[in-house]
Design brief:
Blueprint: E1 12-16, H1 21-32, E2 36-41, H2 44-56, E3 60-65, H3 71-85, E4 90-93, H4 115-144, E5 147-152, H5 165-184, E6 190-197, H6 206-209, H7 218-225, H8 239-246, E7 258-261
Parallel strand pairs: 1-2, 1-4, 2-3, 4-5, 5-6, 6-7
Helix pairs in contact: 1-2, 1-8, 3-4, 4-5
The structure holds NADP nicotinamide-adenine-dinucleotide phosphate (NAP).
Length: 270
């Protein structure tokens, strides 16, 4: 007897931001379950490194350049991936992040937050990080009548963390768009879900969490003291949720959900 609930051998998966820490681990996880994977981003070097890791583990992957700020770039990526790997049936939107100039320093004036920084964070996380890829890759899925879209949102889209106001609002909008689209495409064979990670150390937040000597910063300690598991997440800990949501068998009746992976951070009330 065997269980193929999580077998993704029939799927072509695109991971936008697969050049990054979380997206890269997600791409490897999807490939481990049998999906053919396209790693998409701007960094050819990091993209090809991830492809090599997948191939060395026996999986199938390609890198394709894609800039989420450009409709033309995403459309070209979609068309090439459809040709090279087969029609895209799983889309993971992992491109995103915060900007220093959109973060309020302690004690600073919210009224002075620069508008272009706010707009930049919304452009990256909401427009490029979710809206455009859903539209562009969604066309392929609508034609086929099947697909799974997984938007990487954030804990802070649910509970707005202090200081990162633009980022939190943009991720809240990603969750909202996820719910909208799940309803819009529910009868078209496309499931649309989100994952909201808590704290996973990566390039973007390393300085926030760790001092140069590897000890925790004040903010890092604060976060850990509010995390029941008393640790940060590891990128590989997103794999199970992504594979489950990607699987047409395992998650056949699951759409419009926002799955939180945060070691319990969001469950604490003081
Ligand atoms: N790490 C965490 O604790 C955490 C927590 C909650 C949510 N998240 C979210 O998880 C996602 C991945 O974050 P991460 O920690 O893995 O950060 P990361 O390593 O910096 O990955 C972000 C990726 O976004 C891509 N990207 C940025 N601008 C892009 C553009 N214009 N076009 C295409 N790709 C672009 C980058 O790819 P290129 O450089 O190749 O363009 C990069 O690989 C983000 O949406 C982030 O907001 C992270």
């Amino acid at each position: 007897m065997s269980n193929d609930l999580f077998n993704l051998e029939n799927e072509t998966a695109v991971v936008i931001g697969g050049t990054g820490i979380l997206g890269g681990a997600i791409a490897e996880g999807l490939a481990r379950s049998g999906a053919k994977v396209a790693v998409v981003g701007r960094s050819e070097e990091r993209g090809n490194e991830r492809v090599r890791a997948i191939e060395e583990a026996g999986g199938t992957a390609i890198f394709h350049f894609g800039d989420v700020s450009s409709v033309e770039s995403l459309t070209a990526a979609r068309d090439a991936i459809n040709d090279q790997l087969g029609k895209v049936s799983v889309l993971v939107n992992s491109a995103g992040g915060n900007r220093a100039d959109a973060t309020l320093p302690p004690g600073s004036d919210f009224c002075k937050l620069p508008l272009d920084a706010w707009r930049g964070v919304f452009d990256l996380n909401l427009v490029g990080g979710a809206l455009l890829p859903c539209q562009i890759f969604g066309e392929t899925m609508l034609e086929a009548g099947r697909g799974s879209i997984i938007n990487i949102a954030s804990m802070s889209g649910i509970i707005p963390l202090s200081r990162v106001v633009a980022y939190s609002a943009a991720k809240a909008a990603v969750i909202n768009l996820t719910l909208f689209l799940s309803r819009e495409w529910a009868t078209r064979g496309i499931r649309v879900n989100a994952i909201s990670p808590g704290f996973f150390p990566g390039e973007q937040n390393r300085a926030l969490l760790f001092n140069e000597d590897g000890t925790y910063t004040e903010r890092g300690n604060q976060i850990l003291s509010h995390t029941p598991m008393e640790r940060f997440g590891e990128p590989q800990e997103l794999e199970g949720v992504v594979v489950w949501l990607a699987s047409e068998k395992a998650a056949s009746f699951v759409t419009g959900q926002n799955i939180v992976v945060d070691g319990g951070f969001g469950s604490i009330t003081i």
